[in-house]
Amino acid sequence: MNYCELNGLPPLTVLVVEKYLGVPGEGLITVKNPDFERERVYDYDWFNVYPPDETEFAQALTAKL
Fold first, then answer.
1. pTM for this entry
2. Rounded Cα distance, 63 and 28, in Å
3. Which one, out of 3, 11, 32, 35, has a CA that is 20 to 30 A from the CA of 22?
4. How far apart, in whole angstroms, are the C-alpha atoms of residue 46 and residue 60?
5. Rounded distance, CA 63 to CA 58, Å?
6. DSSP codes joined into one string, the chain
7. Which of 13, 47, 45, 44 is nearest to 30 (CA)?
8. Domain map of the chain by residue range?
């Protein structure tokens, strides 16, 4: 969630939904419109993004948003 936000990417965590409700859980706090953001994830050209390494994820986790 933090890595995507810091790098201007659609939030991949919007794809994780509750089993019965089909919506993201309460832990997804950076998204105001889950349906819109989910479509952004589907439409994004992910093949043009170089995969981050564990250091980049760690930096994103500790960064202040």
1. 0.78
2. 17
3. 3
4. 19
5. 9
6. -HHHHHTT---GGGG---TTT-S--TT--S-S-HHHHHHHHHHS-GGGSPPP-HHHHHHHHHS--
7. 13
8. 1-46
